[in-house]
Predict the structure.
Amino acid sequence: MENPFRSADEQLLDSGLFADVVVKCGERTWKLHKNILCTRSKWFDAALNGNFAEANSREISLSDEHGEDAVDWVIRYVYTGVCDIPTLRPGTKTNFVTCYEVYTVADYFGLPALVRIALDALAAEFDARLPRLQLQGERPDYLDELFDAIELVYQHVPVPDTNRPHSPLRAAFLGFSFAARFVLVNIPAFRSFVRSSPAAAAFFLDMSLAGLDAGDYVAQLPEAHCTICRNKPALPRADKAYFTHVAPQKSHLLTACSNCAVKKGLPPPMQDWSGKNPETEGAAAVAAAADDGVPSTGGG
């Protein structure tokens, strides 16, 4: 049910009627209302009720760190409770960068519900794009926007000071890229991107380490002899006493849909769920069924 007061609050915002606070950012000025701002944003509450000059002057000058558009999105959300992310930048191919902008400005102004809107919009877009990328091997035309968003996230969104290795926004981009890793790493533009900057390299390192945790790289000792000539490297006729070329066979991938992952109690996608974890009976059942060539019950 729509909030009956939302349109009235939006009219106050658009008209400036009864305004008692002025907010400035760049070339823009908003005439706003202290009671609305302070009851809906921790940041504005602290600024207008704390020991700051703004509390007396009731005039807030914001740096252009987030940009005028992003500040307007926040103010309009504070008054209406609505942020329709796909409509914010209609000229783009994706909402990746827009979700980053909304997330960071919402986090700055202490609006956890708006942070969640940004994360949910990002997750919905990833869910819509992954089938074509992962299952059909699509070569996407939006890689430039994906790369821009990853660069921004890794440059400007800090790692949380908790036991979690990534912020929710980093984890979202990492999860999307990891799910499509077998396609992305074979795209020349992606390879160029991960070499282009320290932020891009840090992202690729995180994605690679996630692959390590997920069991992508299974280290095994090679056979004692060369697969081709059957000689041992230590024999006198060999040039070197070790193998110069060691490679696994082409991967046979195990897969699980989201429904089966829940039913089988599989750990997160970026952890090893392929049966190597003795604490995960469901994962072992999936791996055993795959080895036998028989679909597991309810398997994906």
